Amino acid sequence: xxxxxxxxxxxxxxxxxxxxxxxxxxxxxxxxxxxxxxxxxxxxxxxxxxxxxxxxxxxxxxxxxxxxxxxxxxxxxxxxxxxxxxxxxxxxxxxxxxxxxxxxxxxxxxxxxxxxxxxxxxxxxxxxxxxxxxxxxxxxxxxxxxxxxxxxxxxxxxxxxxxxxxxxxxxxxxxxxxxxxxxxxxxxxxxxxxxxxxxxxxxxxxxxxxxxxxxxxxxxxxxxxxxxxxxxxxxxxxxxxxxxxxxxxxxxxxxxxxxxxxxxxxxxxxxxxxxxxxxxxxxxxxxxxxxxxxxxxxxxxxxxxxxxxxxxxxxxxxxxxxxxxxxxxxxxxxxxxxxxxxxxxxxxxxxxxxxxxxxxxxxxxxxxxxxxxxxxxxxxxxxxxxxxxxxxxxxxxxxxxxxxxxxxxxxxxxxxxxxxxxxxxxxxxxxxxxxxxxxxxxxxxxxxxxxxxxxxxxxxxxxxxxxxxxxxxxxxxxxxxxxxxxxxxx
Length: 490
Prior knowledge:
Elements lengths: L6 H15 L4 H29 L2 E4 L10 E4 L1 H22 L4 H4 L3 H17 L3 H19 L5 H32 L7 H6 L3 H19 L7 H5 L5 H26 L5 H20 L4 H22 L1 H33 L10 H4 L1 H15 L5 H15 L3 H26 L13 H4 L1 H19 L1 H17 L9
């Protein structure tokens, strides 16, 4: 079973090379991408079932000793992230096939998208810090191509900001990796917990903070988030949907690994402060916007604050709530950006004052926004309510009243901004429509069908909240245990 792990990286990279050779045959390119990512989804499900039943998978590539090998590890957290990542990549790929526009037709979209898929899988499976760094670099290269695909001035300007910030993140992470190796003599996440525990407190804290800054930039936590609301809205909607659903969650994933396994409980107070400010500033920033895409982009930041709060609270209950929050957020956030993409494709804009009455033209389309929006705000019985309730209960259990109050207030800010989108885009008087007074979904059937499927996936998380929560508790138990080995060879 462990021999499946390299395929998550190898298959997309090989497919990317093939798709470059097929640049003049768009249909063949897309077929290669669909088959490759579809196969990745199937492999991810197999790995998740195996890991949950039998324990972690670990493989040293080439049979080299773990100290110098490229190590790939899949435990429960990595496995569920692989499944979510692969499913969202497949969903958004189908969505992109239904979108018109120069960027969607670019021969470089599919190769870059496949390289992005390889980088996402490599990040989740990395068994040591250096290969996590390499995965981030793969993501950066692919992300820059995707974010500037149409090549207009706004995309180039935003892409430049994106690349500069991520190069700084890369330099910080590379410095942190080098210092960790110098201090401990290893980069293996299986060996590092014991080695780091032996270091003087000052050195351990310094390494922890350096990694926190590097991964915090990737996750867009306060005060390192300002690049995100400026970069994401300029990209194609399918690109923004993938970035919103997955890329910041990779930063959160790295933070979870760092703060539960390498430095358990090391920066609890700092993380609580960061979490509260991230929630509030993201929520206030969203309310101040007058464009649907920018509102949703600020909410990427705000929702990251909840995940960091659970990480800061620590313990099985809080970490389980954090994992559940990630499982809820990925399809929910992706669905909202897919809805935005249909709005922009159909009307040519997502500015609140230039769009209106879409729910009256297509009630189904209005529902596709309303359901994930209510979930994002934490309204029962949706999955967002379950995730936030888990975090609030963990906060009450630890008597952390301030962060509980901030979480509730941030949920109200989220609800207000979702109401702002609803009244501006979906309610009110219908604006003149370039294609006549017909339902939005009918113009883009594939995009509409994919959006509906993503919304349904988010609803399925709420319906299956009990089994998913129990899985999250098992995952959190593994993480909190912080065993020196994430799993033996199988």
